[in-house]
Structures are given as structure tokens and as C-alpha cells.
């Protein structure tokens, strides 16, 4: 398949409410949307880097540079047979996984459209619905947290992830557990603790959490092993897993019992599939993480979460949770049993709204024929 042109748009969308984690607050979501054209077909991908390097070193600006100066020229120069090739082909660029993943996703979409199959089929998905839950940012008070959890449960979400940080952890999680004794609950620290906090983190064992996500440093696998040995609660790694090799190492070391797969963090959908397979071979369940994606990234994530070993709730929520109006139609709406239907039309299976996309575009560049 030869790509005719690539367009990269820098977008900014207002979130319905500010989203707070242990590393900061986001009120707007910036991202890059990549559109690749092959004849009449267009494939879309989303680069999930944020405006600031808080979650990872990548930003929309670094990703724009890697796309413009390396990935786009490479795509226009050389055809591919199958999008799964691109992961190996782009290994010459060290890191910059979010930039790679956005470009690769657009190629998967256009390739799937050309085959007349859905992204889920292209990836080997087997489920008609993806199991999903919400991620609740840090709230101003425990009362506010309980209200937000109650609203999510009322809406039909079967799992709630609570963002924690030092000073906003055991008491808050305990209060939620007391009010919701049987709800699937997990906590996400985004690397806010150190191994010295093991006694405090151990207190979370009392609450029957499905997992505690990335408690220690964003680039650590070693201390997580020491912490996992002391905790009954399974540790899930997010920030520190950037490749199938990292996933294999973390599993063999015993640094985690669950892995969160974000295509942007690991370099794309092909790397995501490989991590999925490695985890499945070792009996380690996975779920798909979220980066406040627009409907484009959301559609790719839903397709990925249709693979068999995505047995835990993914951070993929309804479009309306984050955006007043999404970039795609139909928007993603919660179905029964805390699921989102996996689109079965060609490619991502949702239509990208050109006017809406124009309205949120800050800058764009198109290269090719
Ligand atoms: O549902 O998309 C979603 C948000 C899930 O909590 C979520 N994402 O640490 O995983 C995270 C967090 C995040 C958001 C990270 C934005 C980086 C940027």
C-alpha cells in the first residue's frame, strides 16, 4: 500500500471538566490527528501526547517534529504490505512511541478500509463489546468523590478508577469502599510514591482493590518488584512499560500482575498486540488505558480492547464524559454491563466530522500528492 499524502493537525478541545492527576490538571486536551490518504480512502490516527511533558517526555511539539521530519517522509517514500510492518520499520527512531503510534494507527485504519474490514477484525478482536470503566480525577473533597462515583454507577459504569497521591489516598479510598462495598475499584498513583511508602500502600490491601496502578517511579520496574512482594493487591504497570520486552521483563521479575496497554505509550497497535499475547501466555490480564482521546483514538482503543485477553475494564468511556461534541459520529455511548459496542464498519467504523475537526484545528500541514 502506497500512501499518497499525510496530513497532521494540531487540535485543542475543551474538556467537559478539568481532569486532575498526581502530575497536574488538564482543562483542554491538545493532540495531533494524523490523516493518511490512499486514493479516495482516508485513515485516521491520534497522537496522545499532551501539551506538557508530565505523563511522558513526549509533547505535541516533539511528536510534530518526529512526524514531520522522520515518519511522514518515510511513509511517503516506501509502501507497506501490512501495517504490522511499520513497528519494525520505525525501530530506527528511538522512543517517540506516541508519534509512531499515531501514524501507525492511521495506516491500520486506511489498510482495514481497503480490505473492507473493521479495525477489530484487522487486529484479531473477538468481542462485540469492550468492557469499560471510568477514571475519576482527583476531586476537591471526599464528598465530591462519593457523588461522582455514585453518578458513574448510576450511569451504568461497573468499575471506577480513583486517582491517588500522597495525602489523598487511604482515607478517600476507604470512604469509597465503605459506600460501594461491591463495586470494582482500583487506584492509580501515576508514580506519586516511593518504596518508603510501602507501609502506607499496604493499607490499601484492606479495600479489595482490583489493582493499584503505577505506584512508583515512571521508569521503574525493579522497586515495583519489591513492592509487589509486600502487597496483596495486584500492581498494574502503566508508565514503565514501553515495549513487549519491558512487559516480558516485568512479568518475569514479578513486578506486576496486570498490565495497562496504551498504544501510544508502547509505540502502536502492533506492539500492543504483542504485549497482549505475551501477557496472555503468562496468564496476566490486560486492559486498555486512556489518554482522554477524541473519538478517533477512542475508536482504535475500543477495537484493541476487543482482543481476548482484555478481560479487565478499560479506561475508555463515553464520548460525552470528556467532550461536549466529539470528532466522530456516532459518538461512543455506554451500553449494558459497562460496555461500549465495538464498531463493525470498515476501519475505525465511525465517521470523522470534517467541520468539527476544522473547528478544533490550531494548525495543519499536508505533505504528498
Ligand atoms: O478515560 O481517557 C481516559 C482517562 C484515563 O486516567 C486516565 N488517564 O494516567 O492514565 C492516566 C490518565 C492520563 C490522562 C494520562 C491524560 C495522561 C494524560
Oligomer: single chain
**Strand ordering within the main sheet:** 5-6-7-8-9-10-11
| Beta-strand share of residues | 15-25%
Shape descriptor reads globular
What does this entry look like structurally?
- With 369 residues, this protein is of the alpha/beta class.
- It contains 14 helices and 15 strands.
- A seven-stranded parallel sheet has the order 5-6-7-8-9-10-11.
- Helix 1 (60-77) crosses helix 3 (97-115), helix 5 (142-155) crosses helix 6 (170-179) and helix 9 (244-253) packs parallel to helix 11 (269-281).
- The chain starts with a strand and ends with a strand.
- The chain binds N-succinyl phenylglycine (NPG).
Name the descriptors:
single chain, 369 residues, alpha/beta, seven-stranded parallel beta sheet, four-stranded antiparallel beta sheet, 36% helix, binds N-succinyl phenylglycine
In short:
With 369 residues, this protein is of the alpha/beta class. It has 14 helices and 15 strands.
Q: Secondary structure elements and their pairing?
A:
Elements: E1 5-21, E2 24-38, E3 41-47, H1 60-77, H2 85-89, H3 97-115, H4 119-123, E4 129-131, E5 134-136, H5 142-155, E6 159-163, H6 170-179, E7 184-188, H7 198-202, E8 212-213, H8 222-230, E9 235-237, H9 244-253, E10 258-261, H10 263-266, H11 269-281, E11 286-288, H12 295-304, H13 319-322, E12 328-329, E13 339-341, E14 351-352, H14 354-360, E15 361-368
N-succinyl phenylglycine binds at residues 21, 50, 55, 135, 188, 190, 238, 289-293, 315, 317.
Amino acid at each position: 500500500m502506497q500512501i499518497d499524502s499525510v496530513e497532521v493537525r494540531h487540535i485543542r478541545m475543551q474538556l467537559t471538566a478539568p481532569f486532575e492527576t498526581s502530575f497536574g490538571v488538564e482543562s483542554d486536551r491538545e493532540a495531533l490527528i494524523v490523516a493518511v490518504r490512499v486514493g479516495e480512502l482516508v485513515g485516521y490516527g491520534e497522537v496522545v501526547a499532551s501539551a506538557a511533558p508530565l505523563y511522558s517526555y513526549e509533547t505535541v511539539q516533539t511528536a510534530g517534529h518526529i512526524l514531520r521530519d522522520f515518519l511522514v517522509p518515510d511513509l511517503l517514500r516506501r509502501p507497506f504490505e501490512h501495517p504490522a510492518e511499520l513497528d519494525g520499520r520505525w525501530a530506527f527512531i528511538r522512543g517517540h512511541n506516541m508519534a509512531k503510534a499515531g501514524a501507525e494507527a492511521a495506516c491500520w485504519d486506511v489498510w482495514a478500509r481497503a480490505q473492507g474490514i473493521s479495525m477489530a477484525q484487522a487486529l484479531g478482536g473477538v468481542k462485540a463489546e469492550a468492557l469499560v470503566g471510568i477514571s475519576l480525577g482527583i476531586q476537591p473533597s471526599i464528598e465530591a468523590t462519593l457523588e461522582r462515583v455514585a453518578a458513574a454507577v448510576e450511569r451504568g459504569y461497573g468499575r471506577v478508577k480513583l486517582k491517588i497521591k500522597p495525602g489523598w489516598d487511604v482515607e478517600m479510598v476507604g470512604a469509597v469502599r465503605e459506600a460501594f462495598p461491591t463495586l470494582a475499584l482500583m487506584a492509580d498513583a501515576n508514580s506519586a510514591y516511593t518504596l518508603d511508602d510501602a507501609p502506607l500502600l499496604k493499607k490499601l490491601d484492606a479495600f479489595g482493590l482490583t489493582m493499584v496502578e503505577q505506584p512508583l517511579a515512571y521508569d521503574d520496574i525493579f522497586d515495583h518488584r519489591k513492592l509487589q512482594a509486600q502487597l496483596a493487591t495486584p500492581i498494574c504497570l502503566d508508565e514503565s512499560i514501553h515495549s513487549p520486552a519491558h512487559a516480558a521483563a516485568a512479568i518475569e521479575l514479578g513486578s506486576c500482575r496486570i498490565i495497562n496497554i496504551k498504544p501510544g505509550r508502547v509505540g502502536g497497535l502492533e506492539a500492543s498486540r504483542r504485549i497482549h499475547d505475551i501477557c496472555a501466555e503468562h496468564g496476566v490480564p490486560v486492559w486498555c488505558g486512556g489518554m482522554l482521546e477524541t473519538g478517533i483514538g477512542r475508536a482504535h482503543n475500543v477495537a484493541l480492547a476487543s482482543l481476548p485477553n482484555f478481560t479487565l475494564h478499560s479506561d475508555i468511556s463515553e464520548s460525552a464524559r470528556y467532550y461536549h461534541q466529539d470528532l466522530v459520529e456516532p459518538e461512543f455511548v455506554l451500553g449494558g454491563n459497562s460496555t461500549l459496542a465495538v464498531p463493525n464498519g470498515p476501519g475505525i467504523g465511525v465517521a470523522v466530522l470534517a467541520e468539527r475537526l476544522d473547528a478544533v484545528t490550531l494548525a495543519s500541514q499536508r505533505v504528498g500528492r
